[in-house]
Specification:
The protein has 11 helices and 12 strands. By secondary structure, it is of the alpha+beta class. A 12-stranded mixed β-sheet has the order 1-2-3-4-5-12-6-11-10-9-8-7, sandwiched between helices. Strand 8 and strand 9 form a beta hairpin. The longest helix has 15 residues. The protein is globular. It comes from Desulfomonile tiedjei (strain ATCC 49306 / DSM 6799 / DCB-1).
């Protein structure tokens, strides 16, 4: 007889978690493309369950680990939106159907009152997880494409006359943020009808602004006499690199002024960042973008990137009773829109302000 119980993750039994991660087949081609052994990746992923800002819940059948869900707190995004937001970092199950995935999701939604919002991405061929998210009322907000390439001696492309590539100066940061506001229309928050467009744009400004505040990120710009014409942010992944045995990095955000597009600046910025990363020891670079962002896909393809996997992205706004005692206070009374379509649980969602 099955005896399913929920329990907190026990780090002393991490071999079970490694086995569950190794059982997951939907990212195998990505690992093959990177040159990463699956057992090393499973070791890295199991280690993330013990991160201080991650809460992991296990589903056990007579003591055997059958599935788990891991939530990663998103503190600054919570402050930005005025809601308690979490990312579903892992959603795994041994089952041959979506019901155990759904049980894990419903446990979080029903038993953890501190959760207002869940952000979840699953591999595009992870059908059971996708079905479970649909069963639990999650809203599809886009498909992400993951791309990667090994780094070699990149030859910098020719630049338009009057353009130079260099690291961003403190005095140029506002110009970079102005470009973000004018360019970043392809993002999952912009595709979520519960969120005002202005708030989605301000979120991406905040993301890029955060890159200025840590040495983990690099920010390069394309500069002309008129000022900054484009930018790119990138970072190295030291902990991941140590665990999986390959020096990995990523390109994160890129933007070019609308009037300077289709002139080779995007490709030039990509190659400049890749060249810098390669010179500093990186062996592999990854990037992700929405599948609907065709200009970015074209630029990345011209920069030598190839598709390694894709993921479906879902949001869930969880209806909670109105509360005046939350630790997080909304920055705006108009952050969320009320969805107008019928038959969706989000139509019952109300803002913390009570409007």
């Amino acid at each position: 007889m099955r005896k399913l119980v929920f329990a907190p993750y026990d780090p002393s039994r991490d071999e079970e978690a490694k086995e569950l991660f190794a059982f997951y087949p939907h990212k195998d081609f990505q690992l093959l493309s990177m040159g990463v052994q699956k057992d090393r990746m499973a070791h890295y992923l199991a280690g993330t369950l013990a991160d201080p800002n991650t809460q992991s819940i296990c589903l056990r059948d007579n003591g055997r680990l059958m599935g788990l869900i891991a939530l990663q707190a998103l503190p600054w995004m919570s402050q930005h939106f005025g809601l308690r937001m979490y990312a579903v970092r892992h959603l795994l199950s041994r089952s041959d159907g979506p019901l155990e995935h759904a049980r894990l999701l419903r446990f979080v939604m029903e038993e953890l009152p501190e959760v207002d919002f869940l952000d979840c991405r699953v591999a595009v061929d992870d059908i059971y997880s996708a079905h479970a998210l649909e069963l639990c009322g999650f809203r599809y907000v886009g498909t992400e494409v993951f791309m990667g390439r090994h780094l070699a001696n990149d030859v910098a492309p020719s630049l338009p006359a009057g353009i130079e590539l260099d690291f961003c100066r403190p005095s140029e940061r506002q110009e970079v943020l102005d470009i973000v506001e004018a360019t970043h229309v392809h993002n999952r928050f912009a595709y979520d009808p519960m969120i005002h467009t202005a708030i989605a744009k301000s979120l991406y400004c905040r993301l890029v602004e955060n890159c200025f505040r840590t040495d983990q990120f690099g920010v390069m710009v394309a500069r002309s006499r008129k000022g900054v014409e484009g930018f790119i942010t990138f970072k190295t992944s030291e902990n991941f690199s140590r665990t999986v045995g390959i020096r990995a990095a990523s390109l994160d955000f890129i933007g070019v002024r609308p009037e300077r597009r289709n002139k080779g600046l995007g490709v030039a910025l990509n190659h400049a960042a890749l060249s810098h990363l390669g010179q500093n020891g990186a062996e592999f670079a990854a990037v992700r973008t929405l599948a609907s962002n065709y200009p970015a896909l074209q630029i990345l393809s011209r920069s030598g990137f190839k598709v390694t996997s894709s993921s479906l992205h879902f949001h869930k706004w969880i209806h909670r009773p109105k509360s005046t005692a939350r630790n997080v206070q909304p920055e705006s009374a108009n952050i969320l829109k009320l969805a107008k379509s019928g038959g969706d649980s989000s139509t019952n969602y109300r803002q913390a302000t009570g409007h």
